[in-house]
């Protein structure tokens, strides 16, 4: 039989969608629950934004009263590169090197950073780190990281007493998710003489910038990239440490990726877990939602269209199944006609709570819901006091403000408001042929929205960035549901049931009706308990006066 042909069998099932008539194969022919195709790499390579990858923040302004060779190497004070480090502000293990010919010495005129991060005795990153994350790079993506490196140009401090021994080659290492990925030896720093305006010779450093590139497959979402010096010891028995001013520099950190395609194997109730970060370190979902709900912080939601898509959910039966047990010779005459009201409901899910969200932005949507239903939801705006009189939950209200940012961002991109819930009622005319069953199935149209919250807070004058990567899944306003009116032959069990007699309760004809009376003095309990057969029950005991007569 050729592909595309329908095998004719008595068990053939027919489906009628609204406006569409289709015929499907029997249950033995259609593969059920086939696994989706594993996601592959996209063909096109795209840029990956690296936060402060050019080390422009903070910017070191030159002193207008000094000539170029007189400018301070690190400005008026040693400044840490913003966003490179652990959770706490100004925690990066590095110092910004000012732009200029005799400082960073970059052809693009930009700043650089001196690498001060070291490894501990076990070969792992020490407490102070110089690191960032490649945001929105997903597990399985093919990533290329590139950066420049050069020996120091700090002629003032790397030429002090004993500096000759410290002007040595140093290893530079790049680590991905804590593992050593790339390592190279940086040449020893070199210095030269120039004649200043006063016709005096001064010593200046000579940059020697080289470009490095490393390619890897991401083993986790949002991979961490860090730079460190594996060995800074020198002298007899390596008892001395190279001065920080002699450490090498890095600059122009950039990344590109071939993104992994979206993984559509996750069901709506098993979405990938939400991931929260404070700076470059992991945090918890509640902290970021709370920060987003704080009106003093700037909170935005960014929709990731690469990993957002619409789809049809698995078909599911709704309403009752009607079975036609008539066995007339005339098939048309034996068909039964009926009108039925079919009601079904769709609601939203999210990876932050991984639970059905029964809370919506308009109070009328709460009709029919209980207070307990609403109190367990922490993702959406708290219900207002209205006809339902559902009290607001303070924690729900705070976290719920995040959902407003999400809904606004989604509508701005898709030109359709997000739909938290949908209840559909349909009146359907049903014709059930003899020896058949009829029922209704719905394949709901849904939208999966992937993105992240970015919350910027200010603490002691320093900016802290929170991020929460989250997935929402809800009923679609863009695509219509598929509603199938179905019928098919009865199963053997259903056919046997059709052959049985109509169940009837036992109706006594001559037995007296005896009311239950616990005070009538009977020794037999007249009450019927579950499982007690209905039969002849004892009549009332004769009274003493009646016996005497």
From TrEMBL:
- Residue spans of biased composition, Polar residues class: 353-363
Q: Which domain of life is it from?
A: Bacteria
Keyword vocabulary terms for this entry: Signal
Locations of Basic and acidic residues compositional bias?
364-379, 508-522
Q: Which residues form the signal peptide?
A: 1-34
Give the stretches traversing the membrane. Answer: none
Report residue spans for region: Disordered. 353-398, 494-549
What is the protein name stated in its UniProt record?
Answer: Secreted protein
Q: What is the lineage of its organism?
A: Bacteria, Bacillati, Actinomycetota, Actinomycetes, Kitasatosporales
